[in-house]
Amino acid sequence: MAKQACSIRTIYGRAQDRYLELIRAFPLRPLRNDADLDAAIAVIDGLVDQPVLTCAEQDYLDVLSDLVEAYEADAETISPVGDADLIRFMIEQNDVTQAQVATGAGIAESTISEVLAGKRKLNRTQIGKLARYFHVEPAAFLS
Q: Hey, how many other C-beta atoms are within 10 angstroms of the C-beta on 72?
């Protein structure tokens, strides 16, 4: 998608009709729910699929994208996951047993059991070993 050099005169002069058409179809206002988000994304998809956008379309797209970004930043926070939940998830996703994780990571099976039972937390060394074993960044284990 190529960008054109835009000026206020271009947008509010000859291209005003297209800009107003976009505003009428989907007004630029704060997104308040997932239905608003889905509708905004559909409009964005329609615009980015075009090979070339007019100045009015590009400006509209820029503002609408900012609205989507603001909504997602507020609405889509990810809660931290505890050690036990993360290990359980990794075990399930990798179709391995607790014993296989312990052996493969070089951590005592009793330690894995205690973490899974919520009786203990992982230390830095254990996090590093599990990260290597599961091929993830150590930061995945930091809540």
A: 12
- Please list the pLDDT of the chain residue by residue as tens digits (143 residues): 445 556 655 555 555 688 889 999 999 999 999 999 999 999 999 999 999 988 889 999 999 999 999 998 887 666 778 899 999 999 999 999 999 999 999 999 999 999 999 999 999 999 999 999 999 988 888 76
Classified as helix, coil or strand, 30 is: coil
Q: How many residues in total does the chain contain?
A: 143
Residue 5 DSSP one-character state:
P
3-class SS letters over 21-40: HHHHHCCCCCCCCHHHHHHH
83-141: CATH architecture: Orthogonal Bundle (1.10)
23: Cβ contacts below 8 Å, ≥ 6 apart = 60
Q: What type of residue sits at position 95?
A: D
Give the bridge partners for 2, in sequence order.
52
Which residue type does 63 have?
Answer: V
pTM: 0.50
Structural tokens at position 116: 């899974």
